[in-house]
Amino acid sequence: MKIVCVEPLGISGERFRSLQAHYKAMGHSLDYYMDRREDEDSLADRMREADIAVISNIRLTRTVLSQCTRLRYISVAFTGLDHINLDYCAERGIEVQNAAGYSTTAVSELALALMLDLLRGVTMTDGGIRHGGSRGTMLGGELRGRTVGIVGTGAIGTATARLALAFGAKVVAYSRTERDEVRSMGVEYMPLAQLLRQADIVSLHVPLCEATRGLIGKEELLAMKPTALLVNTARGPVCDIEAVAAALRDGTLAGAAFDVFEHEPPLDANHPLLSAPRCICTPHIAFATEESFEARAAIVFGHVDDYLLN
After folding, report:
1. What are the angstrom distances between the C-alpha of 94 and each of 62, 86, 90, 172?
2. With contact defined as beta carbons under 8 Å apart, do 71 and 47 qualify?
3. pTM here?
């Protein structure tokens, strides 16, 4: 079979050449590309002859997939699958498998880092001191003793809860699926509305689906404390971005941190969060660490091996 990795995935050329030799010994071939192209024409050109494709979070539309008539399997180097036209894949019998678990530590650590940044004003004061400012009357806050509301207790939400507990926070949670492991940590599950009223920090860790699209909107933001902070390392459309920006401008939300948006960065210069006060924006970096990329490569090509052998 012909395997095509359409982007570098943070893997060295030497590693790819080793994988090429591995698949050649199995009677297959591997083509790889050391640059990332997101336009439909380039993706179709790269995948047109592939039986197996490896891709991360680049959007795969029906237009692209319909040109890949040999495609039978997609190994996704990403946790979510909302960027792939799964309906078309189901119609054509194309199997799709994600790389669950590779970035659990990376994402949970960034979620905690963003909480601490919002509480201590790291980004804000860094910008100030570079323009001649000082602390002035600025007072930060501590995570210890605050209530952190975890929305979604899958692997990443659970890992984030564990980190918050280690800092001395009280943790409450809302999730469609409740886990005994989370309860055993001393975390109380409650309805979302109750969590929003109680939490000093709300951290989002749900996948994007119809049930979670717009989960945090104007009404939910108004239910939160005006001193509360919102952290989103899940998916951009889980929040009503305009409503979040308005709440920050109005002072009904004390701060927010977003690593995810409606689409992958770069963002338009007039994106509402970029001009909103007390808002930290990072360009979807939560999953991207040296350690997570090593783990991801092992998972992704392990899945390819399993597909070839079964």
Report:
1. 12, 9, 6, 39
2. yes
3. 0.89
196, 62: one domain: no
Pair 161, 187: CB distance under 8 Å: yes
Residues classed as catalytic: 235, 264, 284
Whether the Cβ atoms of residue 244 and residue 267 lie closer than 8 Å to each other: no
Q: What is the mean pLDDT of each run of 10 residues along the chain (310 residues)?
A: 96 95 97 96 97 96 97 95 95 96 96 98 92 90 98 98 98 97 98 98 95 97 98 97 98 98 94 97 96 95 96
Whole-number Å distance between alpha carbons of 277 and 271: 13
Contact 127, 179 (CB under 8 A): no
Indicate whether 202 and 64 sit together in one domain: no
Cα gap 58→6, rounded to integer Å = 10
Contacts of 291 by beta carbon, 8 Å cutoff, 6+ apart: 105, 106
Strand order across the beta sheet in which 2-5 lies: 29-32, 2-5, 52-55, 73-76, 95-97
Q: Could you tell me which residues are beta bridge partners of residue 149? A: 172, 202
Token pair in block for residue 164: 């918050």
Token pair of 202, please? Answer: 């709300």
* One domain, residues 53 and 112: no
Report d(CA 289, CA 287) in Å as an integer. Answer: 6
Which residue is listed with tokens 């602390």?
135
169-186 confidence digits (pLDDT tens) = 999 999 999 999 999 999
Q: Which two tokens stand for residue 276?
A: 């909103």
pLDDT in tens, 83-100: 999 999 999 999 999 999
Residues in the chain: 310
**For residue 219, what is the domain's CATH number?**
3.40.50.720
